[in-house]
Design goal:
219 residues, alpha/beta, five-stranded parallel sheet, four-stranded mixed sheet, disordered N terminus
């Protein structure tokens, strides 16, 4: 999409941020796209962005409230304050190594006006840590579960709750994980009903999907 076209079109989907996927683009291109999108007054989110891109945006002097979430490599600009959701979206990780993907989901959901709760390190290798979180999970309208290795956590949680589970396979794991493919296949083959799966390491799509579901719920 060229700059001219971006500049003449407004995001008509209320509550959706303008989003830039940064890999494959130069810093100059990203800054130009970001500035063009921000001029319309929408919230803007740049995913998989390096610190050099954040520094280049800061150097423009245009944005006092620009933020960089270093773990997920997400840059975001909140210009439109959205009503905050009544119910939080739990984002559950199997391990600490899954946090970058979980944080991408968290940033995405929050810029879409959602409250979130991060629950970490409750994977199948330490499943006892999940027990005191079950009641909290059962009150949610939708969950995000982020797991690598064999990706079994999504099935475990899917069998404990009666709400949609958005499963995110990560590329965390030894060789037979095949950079997330084993976790992806486990989640796709889950026998727990209500588990939907996004692409490997795609915290962004999980954040969007969970936000859309949570918005439709009355509580």
């Amino acid at each position: 999409m060229g700059f001219a076209r971006i500049d003449h079109h407004r995001n008509i989907r209320r509550g959706f941020p303008e989003v830039i996927y940064c890999p494959g683009k130069t810093t100059e291109q990203i800054v130009g796209i970001f500035v063009a999108l921000a001029q319309k007054g929408n919230n803007v989110l740049a995913t998989r962005a390096g610190k050099e891109i954040y520094d280049a945006l800061v150097a423009t002097g245009k944005y006092d409230n620009l933020k960089f979430e270093e773990l997920s490599k997400a840059i975001y600009l909140e210009q439109e304050k959205l009503p905050l959701s009544k119910t939080a979206i739990p984002i559950v990780t199997a391990g600490t190594a899954d946090l970058p993907v979980a944080m991408e989901a968290k940033v995405t959901a929050e810029i879409m006006g959602q409250k979130t709760e991060l629950i970490c390190d409750v994977g199948v290798a330490g499943l006892h840590r999940l027990f005191d979180k079950v009641e909290q999970l059962q009150t949610a309208n939708v969950l995000i579960v982020v797991a690598g290795m064999e990706g079994a956590l999504a099935s475990v949680i899917g069998g404990l709750v009666s709400c949609p589970v958005i499963a995110v396979p990560t590329s965390v794991g030894y060789g037979a994980n095949f950079k997330g493919i084993s976790a992806l296949l486990t989640m796709l083959n889950s026998c727990a009903s209500g588990v939907s799966v996004v692409n490997i390491d795609n915290g962004f799509s999980a954040g969007v999907s969970a936000s859309l579901i949570n918005r439709k719920c009355k509580n």
